[in-house]
Amino acid sequence: MERKYVEIDKVIEYIKQHIYEPISLTELARYAAYSPYHFIRIFKERMGVPPQYYVSTLRLQHAKDLLIHTNLSVRDISLEVGQSSLGTFTTRFTERVGMTPSEFRNSPVMSEHFLHSLHQFNNWEVSINKRSQYAKLEGNIKAEIPFAGIVLVGLFPKPIPEGLPLYGTLLRQLGDFCFTDVKPGSYFLMATSVSWGSQTVDFILPHSTLRTRTKDPIIIESGKPVPFQKVMLYTPLLDDPPILISLPLLMERFLNRITYK
Question: pTM score, two decimals?
Answer without folding.
Answer: 0.91
